Every structure is written in C-alpha cells, then in structure tokens.
Amino acid sequence: MIEPASVPDVEERAALREQDRIPVAGPWVTDLEVRYVAEAAANDWYTHAGESVGLFETEFADYLGTDFAAAVPHCTSALHLAMLALDLGPGDEVIVPESTWVATAAPITYVGATPVFADIDAGTWCLSPDSLAECLTRRTRAVVTVDLYGGMPDMEAVRSVADGLPIIEDAAQSIGGKLGDRFAGTLGDVGTFSFHGTKTLTTGEGGMVVTDRSDLSERILRLRDHGRTPADHRFFTTEELAFKYKMSSLQAAFGRAQLARIDELLDKKRQIFEWYEERLADVPGVQLNRRRDGLTNTFWMVTAVLDPAYRLPARRMMELFDLHSVDTRPFLPPLSSLPAFAGYDTVATAARRNKTAYDIAARSINLPSALMLTEAQVDRVCDVLLTILRPRKETS
C-alpha cells in the first residue's frame, strides 16, 4: 500500500505561493520570431498580401516531404477539411481512438457522420489495431489515428486492419516525430497539425493540413476559401458554400521562424524528457512515455502513468501538485466518457469495450513540459512527485 501524499501546512503553503509557478506547457520565443512577424506586418500587403502564408506552406511541405500543405486557423479546421474532402457524411461511421482531445472527434459530427470510439494500446497510448478491427462495420468510411503526446501507433498494423479505408492522421502533438524514415503527418492519406500556444511549434493558434493526394488537395483549397478556386479568386465567384479556414500572414510569419528553429525546439523537448527519465528511472510503479525501435518520439508532453497500487486518482494528483505551485494536466479522458457525446449510440459499447483507455486515464497525468523549463524546475517537479508517492510500511 502507498501512503497518501503529504499536504503542506499553512506556513509551507505561504512559502510555496511565493515560489514561481511551474507551467505545464508553453513556447520558446526568440528575436527571430519577433523579426519575422515585424517584417510581415510591414510588408504583407498589396502585391505581397498573404506572402508569408504561401512561404510557410511551401517550407512546411518541404520539411515533411509532402506535395501539399495548407495553413489553417487551427487543427480542428484541418480535420474538418480532411473529412469534407473525403466526402464523409450522414450514415458514415468514422473510427477514432478514445484517448485524444475532443477536437479530433468533433469534426466527425460537423459533417454529420457518427464517431466510433476505439481503445488504445497500453504501450503506445495510441489506436489499438485489435480494437480497430472490433469497431469496423459495413458503415465504416474512415479511420482517424492520433499521435498522442508525440508517440505514434503501429501504423503498419493499422493500415492492414483498415484494408484500404482512408486514414486521417491527427499529428497535432507530434511535429518532427518519425516512424521509420517517414515524418508524423505523412503516415495516412491526409495529416493534420496544431500550432496552438502549447505545441512544440506554435503560431499562437493555427494548424496545417497536408497530403500527397491531388484529389484531396484540390478539394481542400476550394473548401477553405468559401468555395473559390485560386482561378476564381479575383472574380469573387463561388460554386458552393464552404468555409473561411485560412491562416493570417502574421501567424504564418511566426510559424516560419519556429520552423527554421524546429531542430532546436525538438532537441529541447527531448532534453526535458531525458531529465525526467534520469530522475525517475528508479522510482517503482512510474511509467513515462515509452521509447520503441523505429520511432522518433517528440515527447510533446511528459506523461506519468502510476501503478494501480498507489491508489492515487489523476485528479487527486493534480490537486497535490497544485498545492506545490506545479501545473499539470490529466491524461486525456476517454471521449466516450464526455457528456458531449452522450447522445451517440456508440458510447455505451465503447465504455464497456475500451478498458485500457479508461484505466490509464484514471491514474495518469502530464508533467510540466513547457519549452522554457529549466533543469532546476524539473528537479523540483520530481521532488514533488516523490513526496506524493512516498511509500509507507503496511501496519501489521
């Protein structure tokens, strides 16, 4: 049995309040980003209108080695465009892993399709190929994979089970990651990225949709600009009602600077993970993000999964860290547990079937992983975790 975490007394709490709070996520911004944005603010008008957006798209596609990249307001819009381009709609089922942010599944409902929630693999925390196989029906029209916290699923097995169904890869959390020699975001028919302020590469808000399929890229270009094609742009003619899903020049300029520094950003993420890995290596019953052969994990969020013997729910862990002025996040709760999806018939089956996602979410948290973390701050986080997990002898 494990001793419940110690709670600071009144004096200790006062001292802790005086300490700088350790953030769970946040960017690394330099003078380069400031310069790029200032240049765009001065120049991206008239004949140069939108120039930074086009440059960011080209540079991003070149980095990944894809034929097409479109900068959009956020990853949610990227996913929405991907599903629209694949012509998903009412009567269709789209399989999505339980463990992801709601934004992965919400666009399924935007197009009128039905989300089907699959379990995750206990090692990768990503879509389980076995669960995917259980979820397939004659109505299944697409599969969404999620590269959770910078890891990736067994894509060879996923593709084998999907058997030709289109795959949308939600790579929001894994820019720069690789499976073999292929970058995250290039492992399916279409890939999507987030540049939210918490992400490794940020534009404050923003996203990107990428693909090598010309049929999808042509459709996405039309759908993201109110139904206009580039050829129709000057004449303001539209053949269908669509959406306004375009990134601004100032965001794109910021993203270009971040992309120029991507190796530096990724190295810092790996350094942060290695600080945690070294300090927590000998702590029993604590599993961090797993490394595996052939995978370049970006460790977007350092995640701690506690052994059930600790009997310490995720929410209680977060409360205890909070008392020590340390911000954390929960392991994403299963989608089928969210009230937002309560009206779907697929929820009840998912809650019974997807035991791994429910189990891991109940006893796991994301530790501080902000790009500006120092080694001393990681030391402090680990000290707090060890205090929380301090064992006690069982009374006889």
From TrEMBL:
Q: CDD domains under this entry?
A: AHBA_syn
Q: Which GO terms describe its biological process?
A: polysaccharide biosynthetic process
Q: Where is the active site?
A: K199
- PTM sites of type N6-(pyridoxal phosphate)lysine: K199
| KW Flavoprotein (keyword) present | no
Q: Which UniProt keywords apply?
A: Pyridoxal phosphate
Q: Name one GO molecular function term.
A: transaminase activity
Record SUPFAM superfamilies: PLP-dependent transferases (SSF53383)
The protein's name is Perosamine synthetase
